[in-house]
Amino acid sequence: MKTYNLYNMISRFYDKAVSSPFLRRVRSQEKDTLSQILKEHILPSDIVLEIGAGTGDYTILLVEISRKITAVEFSSGMMKQLRNKISRTDRICFEKKDARKIKSFDGFDIIVGIGIAEHINLFKVLSVFQGSNARLAVFTIPTKTYSGRCMRLFYNLFGVPCRLYEKKEIYSKLSIYKELDVRIYDINDRKYCKPHTKVVVIKRQPGN
Ligand SMILES: C[S@@+](CC[C@H](N)C(=O)[O-])C[C@H]1O[C@@H](n2cnc3c(N)ncnc32)[C@H](O)[C@@H]1O
C-alpha cells in the first residue's frame, strides 16, 4: 500500500488514536519537549514550512506563534482533517504535495517535520536545509527501540516502509554540519516505556 493511502484510510481516527491513553502518554512527552523548543526558537515574524502536517497537531501551535505557515501534506484525508481543524486564516497556506519533491527551502525561516522522518530520508531533507537560508530545522527522529520497532511493525503490516535510525548513524551523519548548531534531545520516560523519538534541532549560526 502507498503511504498516503494508509494515511487516507486512518485519517478519520488518527486524532482519536493519538489521544488514546497509551499513545497520549508517549506523545505527551514528545509534545511537551517540542512545544517548548518551538516556542523558544520561533519569532512572531517567522515564516514556517511544516512538512507532513497530518491532522495539524502541531500546526495549530505553529500558526499561533509565527507570521505565516505553509503546511505540506500528501494525504488528502489528513489534509481534510487539518483544514477542518484550522479556522480560516490568511496566515496558513495548505499545499497537498509530496515533501520529497521539495528541492529548496528558500523563503522560509523555520522548517518543521514531526513524524515524517520515518517516511522520508531525514538526511536528504537536512542537506536541502543546509543549502538554504532557513534559520532553524526541527525534526523528530524515530529510533530502533522497542516502541520504534512496534511502530514499524504497524506500518509494515500494511506494506508501508518505515525507516528507523540507528543512534550511531544519527550522530555520525549529523556531525558533518560543523557550521551549524546541532542539538539532539532524548524523549525519555523509563518508568513507562522508552519512547522511540529523538528531537533534532539545527540552528544556523549567525554569519553561516
Ligand atoms: C505520523 S504522521 C505525523 C503528522 C503530524 N505531523 C503529527 O505529528 O501529528 C506523518 C504525516 O506525514 C505525511 N507524509 C508522509 N510522507 C509524506 C511525504 N512524502 N510528503 C508529504 N507528506 C507526507 C503523512 O501523510 C502523515 O500525515
Number of DSSP strands?
A: 7
Summed over residues and divided by their number, the pLDDT gives a mean of 91
Largest sheet: 7 strands, mixed
- Percent in helix: 25-40%
CA radius of gyration is 16 Å
Number of helices: 7
Tally of structural domains:
1
Per CATH, the architecture is 3-Layer(aba) Sandwich
Give start-end ranges of low-pLDDT stretches.
Answer: none
Assign the structural class, choosing from mainly alpha, mainly beta, alpha/beta, alpha+beta, or little secondary structure. alpha/beta
Question: What gap, in angstroms, lies between the N and C termini?
Answer: 42 Å
The order of strands across the largest sheet is: 3-2-1-4-5-7-6
Descriptive notes:
With 208 residues, the chain is an alpha/beta fold. The chain contains seven helices and seven strands; from the N terminus they run ααβαβαββαβααββ. The protein has a single domain, classed as Vaccinia Virus protein VP39 (Rossmann fold, 3-Layer(aba) Sandwich). It has a seven-stranded mixed β-sheet with strand order 3-2-1-4-5-7-6, with helices on both faces. The protein is globular, with a radius of gyration of 16 Å. It starts with a helix and ends with a strand. The model has no long low-confidence stretch (mean pLDDT 91). The structure holds S-adenosylmethionine. S-adenosylmethionine binds at residues 3-4, 7, 52-54, 57-58, 72-75, 78, 98-100, 114-116, 119-120.
